[in-house]
Amino acid sequence: MKQIVVISGKGGTGKTVVSGALAALAQDKVMADCDVDAPNLHLLIGAEYLEENLFYGGQKAFIDTEVCVKCGKCLEVCRFGSITAEFRVKQQLCESCGYCLMVCPAGAIGMDKNPAGKWFVSKTAYGTLVHARLEPGEDNSGKLVAIVRKAAKEKAEQEGAKYVIIDGPPGTGCPVMAALSGVDTALVVTEPGLSAIHDMKRVLELTDRFKIGAMAVINKYDISADNSSAIRRFCADKGIDIAGEIPFSAEIYGCVMKGRPAVEARDANGVEQMKKIWNNIKKRLQT
Amino acid sequence: MKIAIASGKGGTGKTTVAVNLAAVIQGSCLIDCDVEEPNAALYLNPKIEEINKVELPVPRLKEDGCSYCGLCARLCAFGAISVLPGSAAGKGTLLVFDHLCKSCGVCMGLCPERALKEELRAIGTVETGNSCYGTFARGQLDIGEVAAPALIRVLKQKAIYAPVTIIDAPPGTSCAMINTINGVDLCVLVTEPTPFGLNDLKLAVEAVRKASIPFCVVINRSMGDDEIIEQYCRAEGAEIAAKIPFNMEMARRSSEGGLLCATGTVFRDYFTHLAEKVQKT
What we know:
The complex is a heterodimer. Chain A contains ten helices and eleven strands. In chain A, helix 7 links the parallel strand 9 and strand 10. Chain A is elongated. Chain A is α/β, with parallel strands linked by helices. In chain B, the strands form two sheets. In chain B, strands 3-6-7-2-8-1-9-10-11 form a nine-stranded mixed sheet, with helices on both faces. Classes of the chains: A alpha/beta, B alpha/beta. At the A-B interface, helix 4, helix 6, helix 7 and helix 9 of A face helix 4, helix 5, helix 6, helix 7 and helix 9 of B.
């Protein structure tokens, strides 16, 4: 079984639109939405929730004000600014280290179990989807991504699927690394904008470091001919294949608005490019 | 006042709104807190005057004193230390997994032998300087590093604030975003009139409400019919502070690193109006 991750560095370049298209084009696969901060793939391919599981994040400190003697020891040791001068815990800033609890002489501090999100297994018209939702303000997104990946892999094994297609998060940080580690190939979706190009370069440094082969997709390539040429030159220099180039298209936008995969767009060139992308991925994975 | 420009979804136009606001407010400060992918400098072309390495303390053994009792490994909530006790064959081993360490200081502070010291490990940089619109600061996390919140905290300390400070937040609603918006007076949530935009706006609203920060909404790439967002905002009592229309010319300019407010009065007006509005709240 082969795993493919769709990433971009910059947000909003079209990761989910491309992932949704792959979901509709690929046979024998399980989908995994690893953008647990802002999951959207279910909006394109629909989801009938079959399983719902709780995800616990790091425990958060709390202070029992009745027992607190206001000695200030917790304030002194906390390096995250999560304890206020009134001896309350700003739980959103708490990193769960437990130092405050360990030094409290009054035993006034405890740790709350912290339900930080949920993860789901859903049925879609295009096969199984494993997805998740991290509660706003929670950390440990990398851990939740790892759970989604593991569940998707298990489902794929049960179903005898050939592929796991992962819709990744933006950025280069901890959830991206969790989405990237151990995959067979990465598809980097970029746009002909300076920000997107800058971010693509950073995310390619990351795939290099993980020794994962990458291919690029230029989305909305026709917005800037100069910048698209710059991307092609950069990729040629780096030996990165361009799997396809998707035009800016009101039809594709219309699909997103209706919550349908972009392969249904009445845009022959756009759809042709999406097919080309999937064929190029398959080719890459055979070798 | 400090205004954070945030959104759940990436690519809705946070940086576009942030840099154009900073540019229309004379003598403003812009802080780029999207430390995984900082882009504001591409638009503001600041002159960077100071580059500071950001380092996090990680534990290391002092020359001697460790009894390999393993207390630090048991107390570490992040599994960042592993201790193998000594035996007749030789002394023990203490291993630190730097990437798992959150620099909380528990191990060092509570070691009964005081056998641990802290060593600094670089995770990225904070740069400060000036653009022709005001002061500028940005952070950049090294590739392969995960401690975005720690870098953001340092960045917010080092920045030179102005009467109006615009903070470009990272996408999402997790710890990096929360650390960015902590302590600001207002959050401007940038969204787009699509089901993705709406879904992620809801998450962002939840996050700012949890942090008790006032907020308003900006609809970017408005296609005329923004009912999908408007309906939600009405139901939630959220103010829509501006609508920026989709326009091919604007998309092109932005993609080439141009400031929209420098393109013409029509574009400029969107941001001057927004600037007036946010400064009033």
